[in-house]
Amino acid sequence: MENADVFLGLQDFLERMRQPSAADFVKSIKSFIVSFSNHAPDPERDSASVQAFFANMEAAFRAHPLWAGCSEEELDSAGEGLEKYVMTKLFTRVFASLPDDVKQDEQLSEKMSLVQQFVRPENLDIKPTFQNETSWLLAQKELQKINMYKAPRDKLVCILNCCKVINNLLLNASIASNENPPGADEFLPVLIYVTIKANPPQLYSNLLYIQRYRRQSRLVAEAAYFFTNMLSAESFISNIDAKALSMEETEFEKNMEFAQALLSGLSTDLDGLSSQIDQIDGHDPREPTNESRHQTRKEDHTIQPKSSERKLSSKEDKSINKIPSISELENRGATMLLKEDQTSKVFQEYPHMFAHAGDLTINDVEDLLNNYKQLVFKYVCLLKGSGGGSATFPLSGSQVQAQQHVESVKESEDNRVIEQKVGLQNDTDRVDDGPHRISNQENIESNFPKGVAVAPSEDNHDDTFEK
Amino acid sequence: MGCSSSLPDRSSGQLSGLNNTENSGVPDAKNLRVKLVLLGDSGVGKSCIVLRFVRGKFDPTSKVTIGASFLSQTIALQDSTTVKFEIWDTAGQERYAALAPLYYRGAGVAVIVYDITSPESFTKAQYWVKELQKHGSPDIVMALVGNKADLHENREVPVQDGIDYAEKNGMFFIETSAKTADNINQLFEEIAKRLPRPS
Q1: Which residues contact A375 (CB under 8 A, 6 or more apart)?
Q2: Would you give the DSSP letter of residue A340?
Q3: 3-state DSSP of A199-237
Q4: Rounded to the nearest 5°, which phi and psi values hold at B109?
Q5: In which band, very low, low, confident or very high, does the pLDDT at A17 lie, cut at 50, 70 and 90?
Q6: Residue A232: which of B1, B66, B99 has the nearest Cβ?
Q7: Given its phi and psi angles, is residue B44 left (phi above 0), alpha (psi -120 to 50 degrees) or beta?
Q8: What is the nearest CA distance from A204 to chain B, expressed in angstroms?
Q9: B47-104: per-residue pLDDT in tens?
Q10: Hey, how many other C-beta atoms are within 10 angstroms of the C-beta on A387?
Q11: Which residues contact A365 (CB under 8 A, 6 or more apart)?
Q12: Residues A174, B78: contact at Cβ < 8 Å?
């Protein structure tokens, strides 16, 4: 296997837990999870008690007949299964659950969204030989997957995969240019650059969460090293100032202001997309469209730009005016998505979005294939469209919606029940959580009742263990 | 230039860091494991020294795949003990200096490298020594390494300066060449001998 992917041994672990002789394990796991909801969150104590629980359980597995004669790998896999199961249950309770953490995440994310507008590889001491922005997109993608998973290990794997992509790119570049093999002097700057550009969701909380809840005996050696690099990237980014980027103080501030102006222009400009599609449609760009009105407004915001500033801001306007490429649209969409209050809603019509391979049944194949075909079709249309073809985007969008509707009727009873349940959970979510919680995953992955609701949904627990 | 090098086989499979079953054995007096952190200006050849050390006797069972900034290598000493080094490289550029504590936390060994053709890098090395004396763990084993010893015609830091500084600070000192492999193994063997043994 090329990648160390998401941990797939959870089913196997649950299987073992359904054995009659595992009844005591099931009982202690359940009571541990329940006991957790009986006290107020306290990160230090919570982390210590989870780590101690894992250690005790792993020792008990080792001594139990269920694992008699098993290899170290199998025992290790049982430990991973336990970690994944327990942390999925406790996720909402311990992940970004303090207002302070949420605030830190927002500040860090805002910083990255500003700095990414103007930071250049040489600001971070990345040598020209190793500069390859397009390939770095691959590494960014790995990092951006981090919120698709709840288990600490799976989140950690996103980070390690990102590091691996970077290292391979550096190594290839060094071979091609006959340079010394890359070490930390080359690696860390690229990791920081990639992180800034990726602006991965809730980075601060994700790192804290891995640090606290990844089984400590497994966060060692190479994984510990690359995780430390991610921690130091995060630390560097949150402290970025003019000096850190070898910029003049005034230049740095100017850059930050422009980035701010550019961003607020984009985000108040939700209908900018449609006006841009109008342009593709063949509207005269000089016509007073929505967009140019927005621009006028944006210019009004800037308080008396100096002459040099004015030059730059007109350059920015030009970049807004040009027809966006697919990847520009994608990036912008991703930014909007992150800011949206109910991200989960957006994904609700895509039932497998947060499924793991193990969750799928043979019946899902047809659905998935249909969805895949639609997706490809839609993407190709978009690609053609952005290349100056006809603007089929809104049309094909509605077509897809209609088809999706038909398909969801075809879906099995079970799925529909789950979807309804999800809908309910969403409603309660909105009451419980702050507006910025992005918790799409647990809303859809409804096999796992939410950590908060552990006590009342005991029946559901039995389902997962003792079917 | 300094270290022409083929890397250890990187197609050998999975990310190693995730399932360290080899760790589950309790470290004993015969088989030590130690975290070693490399500090020093960028361009002094930190990673080259490590690659030289690891490449010489590449251990096919070590599953290093992610990159050359983390490598591990086990050596056997004459008294039949083995020492497994987990080697953490750090970025030497000035702008990253403040991040170093994240890396040397918990390290049993710090190897501080300078380039004998660069007085600035020697000054930087002294900065790291002071920093570790202030903030590192008190029983950390420190080694001062003057690298690029093969470039003696361009030498700007006299051997005696290195010796004197190391002696004053209770460090082990050696000059190496990652290019010719001179003294590379000696460096790590000497460190291994100086490690405190669990009683």
Answers
A1: none
A2: -
A3: CCCCHHHHHHHHHHHCCHHHCCHHHHHHHHHHHHHHHHH
A4: -135, 140
A5: very high
A6: B99
A7: alpha
A8: 16
A9: 899 988 987 644 444 444 567 799 999 999 888 899 999 999 999 999 999 999 999 9
A10: 11
A11: none
A12: no
**What is the per-residue pLDDT across A252-282, written as a single tens digit (0 to 9) for each?**
999 999 999 988 876 655 444 444 444 444 4
Query: A residues 181-210 near B, CB within 8 Å?
Result: 181-185, 187-189
Contact A118, A255 (CB under 8 A): yes
Which CATH superfamily hosts domain A99-245? VPS9 domain (1.20.1050.80)
Of chain A, the percentage scoring pLDDT greater than 90 comes to 46
| Residue ranges of domains in chain B, CATH in brackets | 31-194 (3.40.50.300)
Q: Do B95 and A170 touch (CB under 8 A)?
A: no
Q: Which residue out of A222, A231, A232 would a mutagenesis test of the B interface target, given it has the greatest number of B Cβ atoms within 10 Å?
A: A222
Residues 159-198 (B) with a CB less than 8 A from some CB of A: none
The sign one gets for the Cα dihedral A146, A272, A382, A169 is negative
Q: In what order do the strands lie in the sheet with B109-115?
A: B70-76, B82-89, B31-39, B109-115, B141-147, B172-175
The domain segmentation of chain A, as residue ranges, is 10-94, 99-245, 249-331, 332-466
**Taking CB atoms and an 8 Å limit, are A72 and B24 in contact across chains?**
yes
Residue A266 C-alpha, separation from nearest chain B C-alpha, in angstroms: 32
When CB atoms are compared, the residue of A124, A170, A223 closest to B17 is A223
Q: What is the full DSSP assignment across A175-191?
A: HHTTPPPP-HHHHHHHH
Neighbours of A413 (CB within 10 A): 7
Alpha helix stretches (DSSP H) within A4-146:
10-17, 23-36, 43-63, 72-94, 99-115, 133-144
Q: How far is A164 from chain B (nearest CA, A)?
A: 5
Q: Which strand (E) or helix (H) includes residue A266?
A: helix A249-267
Q: Six-digit token pair at A379?
A: 């993407």
Per DSSP, the three-state class of A446 is coil
> Is A235 an interface residue toward B (CB < 8 Å)?
yes
Rounded CA separation B187/B49 (Å): 10
Say whether A232 and B1 touch across the interface (CB within 8 A): no
Q: What is the dihedral of CA A178, A182, A186, A192, to 10 degrees?
A: 130
Residue A82: other Cβ atoms inside 10 A: 21
Q: Are B57 and B130 in contact (CB under 8 A)?
A: no
C-alpha pair distances (Å), B58 with each of A77, B51, B74, B85: 29, 10, 9, 13
Residue of A62, A80, A193, A225 to mutate when probing chain B, most B C-beta within 10 A: A225
Give the nearest chain A residue to B64 (CA atoms).
A222
- Whether B96 has its CB under 8 Å from any CB of chain A: the answer is yes
Distance between alpha carbon A291 and the CA centroid of its chain, in Å?
Answer: 31
Cβ-contact A450, A92 below 8 angstroms? yes
Q: Please answer yes or no on whether B48 and A226 come within 8 Å at the CB atom.
A: no
Low-confidence ranges of chain B (pLDDT < 50): 1, 4-17, 19-26, 57-64
What's the token pair of residue A105?
Answer: 């995440």
- Contact between B155 and B115 under an 8 Å Cβ cutoff? The reply is no
Contacts (Cβ under 8 Å, ≥6 apart) of A113: A199, A259, A263, A335
Q: Residue A323 contacts by C-beta under 8 Å, 6 or more apart in sequence? A: A276, A279, A280, A386, A388
In CATH, the number for domain A10-94 is 1.10.246.120
